[in-house]
Amino acid sequence: MDTLQKTIGKPAECSGTGMFRGESVRIAFKPAPANSGINFVRVDLPHRPKIPANVHFLSSTVKRVFLKKEDAEVEGIEHLMAALAGLGIDNLEIEIHGREVPAGDGSAKYFMDVLREAKIVNLDGKKQIFKIQEPITVINGKASIVALPHDEGLFFSYTLDFDGFFIEQQTYEMEFNEEIFSREVASARTFGLSTYVEEFKKMGLGKGITDENSFIIHEDGKITKPLSMNPAELRFPNEHVRHKILDLIGDLYLANVGIQGHIVAKRSGHSLNVELARKIANISHLKRKMLNSD
Ligand SMILES: [Zn+2]
């Protein structure tokens, strides 16, 4: 794992429509110094409130991840966070002209392409790595995640399981590094279950969904585009489980610490993912405090 913190070498911009609200949003990425972290800045609001991308500012995880500081909120940050994790970017200012991150192509690839154009550079500061030394578990009903000790680096195992409905169980395992993440996971798009579509519409959400940025799994196992309902062409036969790992990677990045361990997840989604991120952030903070007081 890299030991130096990273940012981008020059500013970069992107824009697009948010997946949930369908509003068009512009984002400017700016380099940031070591130890400043990832921060969203709502430049469309008076006083330009800054919202740090870490577990202490999480406000909700209903179908997407929200951060909130005082009255300012940003939402739908998870695929951008996964892109930052994949590229190892620790410090970045993200100026956002609106409340929802653009959907891009429904994966992390769009953001990775934009950020790579801005050249990733090392900073004069070491990355903090938290070594999992004993199992850390979070459970909610049939969903669970266990973080286990691992000799080197970060390894993920994820099992997607809808109790035999929709699609067969899928398991995917990967060692985490930039190359493997970019090739195997970054382009896996978001998806929904057909049974949620009506619920979504009632909530007034999903206005930025297109036939290109997501797909739908139906109860009979058919996979279609979300609007035209034509058969969807998947980017990987198991794009679903790969996207679940992408979400998990983005959510764990809110712990603001590199992880050495083996993360074994079953059926987990944003709410359980961030519960693990919170636990990891708390334990690593305590450990650092103890080290400093020695
Ligand atoms: Zn996602």
Short description:
The chain is built from 6 helices and 19 strands. The chain has 294 residues and is an alpha+beta fold. It binds zinc ion.
Major sheet characteristics: 6 strands, mixed
**Bound small molecules, which ones?**
zinc ion
Helix-strand category = alpha+beta
Query: Roughly how much helix do the residues carry, as a percent range?
Result: 10-25%
Radius of gyration: 18 Å
Low-confidence stretches: none
Figure out the total of helices.
6
According to DSSP, the number of beta strands is: 19
Secondary-structure element pattern, one letter each: EEEEEEEEHEHEEEEEEHEHEEHEH
Globally, the shape reads: globular
Instruction: Name the average pLDDT.
Output: 94
Q: Termini, distance in Å?
A: 27 Å
Q: Strand percentage, roughly?
A: 25-35%
Structure overview:
- With 294 residues, this protein is of the alpha+beta class.
- The chain has six helices and 19 strands.
- Strands 11, 12, 13, 14, 15 and 19 form a six-stranded mixed β-sheet that branches. A five-stranded mixed β-sheet has the order 2-3-9-4-5, with helices on one face. A three-stranded antiparallel β-sheet has the order 6-7-8, with no helix packed on it.
- A hairpin with a 7-residue loop joins strand 4 (38-42) and strand 5 (50-52).
- Helix 1 crosses helix 2 and helix 1 packs across helix 5.
- The longest helix has 24 residues, at 270-293.
- The mean pLDDT is 94.
- The structure holds zinc ion.
- Zinc ion (ZN) is lined by residues 78-79, 190, 243, 247.
